[in-house]
Structure formats: structure tokens, C-alpha cells
Amino acid sequence: MRSLSHPLPPLPGGHAREFAAPFVASGPSGVAIRARLKHLSADDEMVLRAVGAHLGALASRDLKARCADGLEHDSDTWAARKRALTSVSSSRWAGSITKATHDQWALARRNQLAHIKSLEAGIATIRHRLSLPVGQPGSKHAPGGYRSADEWHAKSRRLATLSARHAAAVADWQAGQVRVVRGGKRLLNNRHHLDEAGLTKEQWRARWEAARWLLAADGESGKRFGNETIRITPDGQVCIKLPAPLAYYANAPHGRYILTCAVAFAHRGSEWADRIGTDRAVAYRIHHEPERGRWYVTASWQRPTVTTIPLEAALAKGVVGVDTNNDHLAAWRLDVHGNPIGAPRRFSYDLSGSADHRDAQIRHALTRLLHWAKRCGVAAIAIERHRTMRRTQATSTPNTVRDVPVTRNPLLRTENERWGCRWHPPSEMAYSGVGGTCDSIHWSLVRRDGTCLCCAAPSGIPAMTATPTSTGPGCDAACRAMPSTDARRSPSPTPPRT
User: Which residues on adjacent β-strands are paired with residue 239?
Assistant: First the structure.
């Protein structure tokens, strides 16, 4: 990381950009791996469906009770719910159900608060624009008045609608009332729009039932193979402790059912085997995908907190600077003084399609980036940390601005995925943040003829100089993540001026 000897140029409107201090990201707090349950027999599928439906019904009933308790919930009501569940399942199944219920209720509360804040932001923006004269132009950082009286009238009605929604949301928040749909609100609404969703009644029903099943058990350290409820042996044998009402399905002692198939974890399988070999806790979740007709098991566990190394040690062997874009990661290797080495690299991905496809594309790009960084011999990857989810961009209309949700930026979408790759292969990630502005600061590196080194587009920057620029529709190549070329012109052993 390099400090600047001159202040950054101010943003339009007089706001100055400031760099936040770089830091080394801490390691992932947990691990989750998935494997397919292949070659299940008809009896296996029947038992899994029966157990999942039974526990899912109990989870729905428990969630209803938890939502009814609202803010009056305490340890006594939790114990009463768990005792009621234990009599129709088991103590461990009851613990897993109540834990899942508490997590779901807490998530609903956080979403409710985020919804209230979103409504407040929208109300404040509309009120500000309604207070301005019609047709008054705005600036790059503040919207102006509405363009016509008709639009002003429509937005005044919109303000009344948002105010009513805000009042209702605040009332629910204060009363501790949340609205949760087990199985997902989107899937529930698809029932009324089957043609648009491309589903038949039978297909929708299969997905709805599978989404509401519950086959998840928390791990226990000190117990055999780390889990007493869903147990997987080192050779892949899956054994499930049946709830009391379904004990007649057991094909093994102590009310257990053993699946005929064997499971193998390809990703981090050795780490999983080491963990269950020492009887450390591993949580398991079995789930069904009706659209593909497949069953999967997900194993997850927590990782101990690891002390990160100092930033100076992480950058001792150089660094790979990474800039994220809408369809690719732009990377360049830098030496210890911030000088670019070799040619920039581009790791493309496609964010169209389903969420699973997008996640797979981003993970594949991150994997290629980490492998390339390992081949370069560096010990760190420097990447900018985006702190805001929205930014203001100029529209085609002069003197007007609009809020654009930055939802396709992989930095904002893959925080956990990027940190999850942090230790495999072992490479530190150093983050540099930008404080006090929504725009990201990059560095443009140009040729002597004034064109960008990566895309050959005219940059409007003097030749062989580097100027901090903000993210915009211009060059979005890897060179914008580079430090000043003053260091590039000096010999490598000589540190650049600071």
C-alpha cells in the first residue's frame, strides 16, 4: 500500500475523498460443504420424506408459537416449547427445531428494521423534492424538483402511500410482530401465477413441501463422529436418529435408520474426515431438490478464530491488486513498492441467469484468481472494500441524478465467498477502503499517447501519469487499480517517494 504525497482532488460539490486505513481480513468463521446422496432406495426416500415432513410440521408449529410470543419471549417460554417438541420427536431434534425457529425470527426482525429504514430514506427523498419548485435543477449530489406538476402530484400520492406503510411497519416493530413464511414468500406467491413461473400444480406442490421439510441437526463435540442425530461415518455411511412417532421405520438398533447409499465429500473431504475422526461437532442438513429429483447433504462446522498476520508481513512478497467490474475481475501483480509486474489479468464471469449460476460463476472466477496469485508467489491479495450498497449516478438528462442499486457488483454480493476462499490456498487478503464517499477511487494508467493500457480508449489523462478517478462509464480495466506511475519509473530497489 502506498501513501500519497499530495491531497486527493475534491469531488464535484466540494467533498474531498479520503482513503480508509488498509487492513488484513480475518479468516472465515465457518465451513459448509455439500455432497449428493446417490442411489437411494425407494425405502430410503420414503423414510426421508416422512421424517422431513414430520419435523417440518413441528417447526411450523413452533415458529407460530414463537411469533405469537413476540417481545414477551423468555427462557421459560423457550423451555416450555422445547419440552412440548421433545415428546413428539427427541430432545436433540427439539433443540435443532427451536434453534432454527429463533434464527428465523431474528432474521425477520432484522429484515423488518431494514425495511423501515428503506421507507424512511424514500420518504425523506420525496419530501425534499416536493419542497423544491417544480423544474428546479439538481446537482450531482442532490436531486432537484420534479419536472412537471403532474409528476409532483403523483409523487405526493406516493408519499402518502409510503407514510402509511412506514406507520404500519413501525407499529409491527414496536409490537414485536413479524411475518414469516416457511418455504419462502416468493414460492408461495408462485402458486397464484403458475403460468408465469412455468410450473404445474404438482410441480409447485412438490417444491413447496420440500422447502418446508426440516432435516437438520446441530453437531456435538465429544459425541461419536461429532453428531448424535445425523451421523456420517468416515466411510460415508449415513445414520439418522428417527423421531419417536416414526421409530417403526428403524432398521438399526436404538431407533436409527441407515441409508443404503454412501456419501463422499469431494471438497474439503480430508478436513471433514479429520474433524469427525476426533469427534468434533459437525452439523448436517439433508434437503431435496424436486426439480432435479436429487437429495443432498450439507456438512458445516465452525472454525476457531485465527490471528491475522500484520499488514507489513502480508505485503512482504508483493501483492496482487484486484478491481471488480460488472463482468470480470481485473488483476495485476505489484512488487513491494507498488510497481506493476508483467501484464494485467482478466477473470471473466457472467451474472445472468439463476442465483446458483451467478454464485458458481463468481466462485469460479475467485478460484482462478487465487490459483494465479499462488503461482505468482505473492502472499496477499489487495482488493477494495465497498461500504455502500447504493451510489448516485448521473442520468442522461442534464442536472438530474438517480439512485442506482449496485446489486451486480460481486464485491457486494460475495463478501462471504471471498473471505471463505481466504485460507484455501493460503493467501492473505488486504483491503483498502475509501471513506466518506459512495464512489470508488481507482488509478488510471495510460500510454504515452494518452490511451488506456488495457482497453486502448482515450482517457483524457496526460501521458505517463496516474490520476485518481472515480468509477464511471469510462475505462473499467485492471489498470485503474494501480498505484502512481511515479513508482514505476523508479528502479525497483528504490522505494517510491511518499
Answer: 231, 258
